Amino acid sequence: MATRNADARPAPTAEPLSSLDALARALRCLPGVGPRAAQRMALHLLQHDRPGARELAHALLRASEAVRHCDRCNTFTEDSVCALCRSGKRDPAQLCVVETPADLVTVEQTHAYDGLYFVLMGRLSPLDGIGPKEIRLDRLIRRATDGVVREVILATNFTSEGEATAHYIAELLAARGLAVSRLARGVPVGGELEYVDAGTLAQALRDRRWVAAPPGGAGNG
Ligand SMILES: [Zn+2]
Question: Are 183 and 166 in contact (CB under 8 A)?
């Protein structure tokens, strides 16, 4: 593609970037934004929305200076400890481990969980050089072994990396005497079996639970 070549080729003169080029280049730090989309965004802001551009610049600056990680759960906050960790309404015996602050928000939106969280800010990915140290698993272990947490719920993604991360954490925490659970996998709410992929259905079979336990049989929980 022409844009790709143009992008890869160094500028013919050593002229400094114009501020328009600099803006387009800066916008490319956003996920999924390539050179053309970045240029469209830059032109749009300058042509149609100068106040919006100024507001964006101020908001970016403010957030990048004010937002930090919670000392307890590692999510984004502007205080040393986030509002969720400070809340007296949450069950401190349950700790849900998620990959990102967005995942935390998603779990919160279910209104089905009232424990606390730990946000990894990533997942193990040896191929990208992301090991236990990079995602600060030592902090998670310290947090989970505070003597109050009784159950750690692993809610990392069901990707191969998320699964590997969950497995690794489970072993670390089980060795320290903690109960560790993993989000169940299965058929989506409202789902019809005919349209569920084979892998999900196979997992749902393996993770099936009793709806009527056999007489004298042990249930699954
Ligand atoms: Zn927190």
Answer: no
Strand partners, 69: 76
What's the CA-to-centroid distance between 68 and ligand 1, angstroms? Answer: 11
Give the tens place of pLDDT for each residue, 99-136.
Answer: 999 999 999 999 999 999 999 999 999 888 999 988 88
Strand-pair category, 115-119 with 91-98: parallel
Give me ligand 1 centre to Cα 70, in Å: 5
d(CA 14, CA 16): 6
Which SS3 state, helix, strand or coil, does residue 101 take?
helix
Residue 17, Cα to own-chain centre: how many angstroms? 35
Distance 150 CA to ligand 1 centre (A): 18
Distance between CA 154 and CA 157 in Å, rounded?
Answer: 9
Distance CA 121, CA 100 (A): 5
Percent share of the chain, pLDDT over 70: 90
CB 179 within 8 A of CB 207: no
- Checking 169-178 for CB contacts under 8 A at 24+ apart, the result is 169/97, 169/137, 169/140, 172/137, 172/141, 173/141, 173/144, 176/141, 176/144, 176/145, 178/144, 178/145, 178/149, 178/150, 178/151, 178/152
Residues of the chain with pLDDT under 50: 1-6, 219-221
| Segment 173-192, tens digit of pLDDT | 999 999 999 999 888 888 89
Centre of ligand 1 to C-alpha 2, Å, is 47
Residue 29, classed as helix, strand or coil, is coil
